[in-house]
Amino acid sequence: MDFNEKTATKAVLDSFSSIKNDRLKFVMNSIVTHLHEVIKEVEPTDEEWLQAIMFLTNTGQKCDDRRQEFILLSDVLGISMLVDSINNRKSKNETETTVLGPFHTTSPKVNMGDNIANNVNGEKCIVSGKVVDINNNPIAKATIEVWQSGPDGLYDVQKEGHTVDLRGTMSSLENGSYFFRTVKPQYYPIPIDGPVGKVLNSLERHPFRPAHIHFMVKAEGYENLVTHVFIEGDKYLESDTVFAVKKSLIRKLEQGNDPENGEKCFYLNFDIVMEKII
Ligand code: BEZ
Ligand code: FE
To answer: What is the pLDDT of residues 214-246, one digit of tens each?
Structure first.
């Protein structure tokens, strides 16, 4: 039978009839059905379709060991957060999840109270909290990994010949508590020197993410948690370019003094509620 606008979708779906892997078949049926719908609705010209192909080609060519432009594309289109939301539905008071982002890498072990800001000057900040279960029982020896950008909006790995900075891994104490010293996080733009930057520009969107500190928390018997703490009052909280803000993750920065030396510093408290593996 002729392949035309009316027969196209069925023709391709029929070609999948011998796929034995049910999940693969389901996914391919869905992708082809929806993509065909998009093409029928949009009716791209040949030039527009080639433009789309070139955009995807450029996105792939921008990827290397340190840069994943396809994840960035998924981030700015809200797909990363949609996948995250589907896979991390919470039923109680567990800490909500958010995107991992492209700047996670192995971080040095730090001790309680250590300063993770080595080569940056910024407003000092003490971050503290407790790791607990949904009934507020402390979780000891949870691994807490944190990473953040500096006051210049850059992560260490974005700097030429970088040295490790603004990241660390610590272990919660018997009462579940943790604390570390750092500098106040700042809002920053996601990388815009590639195809995704051009997309944001043509969609008339800004590239900024509100100030945050990333957390990855692991404890035996509990689901791994990937999240951020955001700073109350940040001007980009309502328009995070990767749609990753959740109200429950926003905390107020309090002003105080560092007990170690009396210097002025900010305090940020972020308790972490872990979800039991069932
Ligand atoms: C980040 O928070 O580091 C990030 C997340 C998604 C895209 C770009 C950056
Ligand atoms: Fe980040």
So the answer is: 999 999 999 999 999 999 999 999 999 999 999
Residue 193 domain flag: yes
Instruction: Kindly identify the ligand whose nearest atom is closest to the C-alpha of 207.
Output: 1
Q: Are 152 and 180 in contact (CB under 8 A)?
A: no
pLDDT tens, 107-156? Answer: 999 999 999 999 898 999 999 999 999 999 999 999 999 999 999 999 99
Please give the model's pTM, rounded to 2 decimal places.
0.94
- From the list 134, 144, 109, the residue with the least C-alpha distance to 217 is 144
Within this chain, do residues 131 and 256 fall inside the same structural domain, yes or no? Answer: yes
> Would you say residue 57 lies in a domain?
no
Residue nearest to atom 3 of ligand 1 (CA): 101
- Within-domain flag for 130: yes
Closest residue by CA, ligand 1 atom 5: 101
Residue 158 in tokens: 């974005």
